[in-house]
Amino acid sequence: MTLHWDGEEEDTRSARRAAVERDALLEGARGDAISIANEFAEVRIVRVDTRNGSRLLIESPKSGQWVALDPLELESLTWQNTATFSAMIGNPFGPLIPEETGGIVDGGSTEGGDEPVRRLPEGGSQ
Q: Do 70 and 76 form a contact (C-beta atoms < 8 A)?
């Protein structure tokens, strides 16, 4: 008996695409990776050069998750408060803002109309 789940084929394709993308990024690695760890987590960080400039590749060896951030994305981390990071930690392996919202946070209330107030994520600008 073999177990399967809905979306298994799509998950497999996504994992393969991510592995190819990560390998391509690592071809542009500059310098040695830096590992930072404590009792809760470990990350490995390496600078990678791409055709669109340098990025920081941050990966978790334990989970296999990774992200490549450009300078603006890295700077945006400095705009956040501790509540943002607490919310991210409280929702592991999931996005803080669902992709289908286009980055807009629904405030859930109305301002004199039937439409909900839409707010940008914390620190965002219109």
A: no
CB atoms within 10 A of CB 46: 20
C-beta of residue 61 within 8 angstroms of C-beta of residue 76: no
- 29, 46 in Cβ contact below 8 A? yes
Cα 38 from chain centroid?
Answer: 21
For 18-38, how does the pLDDT look when each residue is reduced to its tens digit (9 = 90+)?
899 998 899 999 999 999 999
Report the alpha-carbon distance of residue 29 to residue 50 in Å, rounded.
9
> Could you tell me if residue 36 is inside a domain?
yes
> Does 85 share its domain with 67?
no
pTM above 0.90, yes or no: no
Q: Which domain holds residue 107?
A: 79-126
Residue 124 lies in a domain: yes
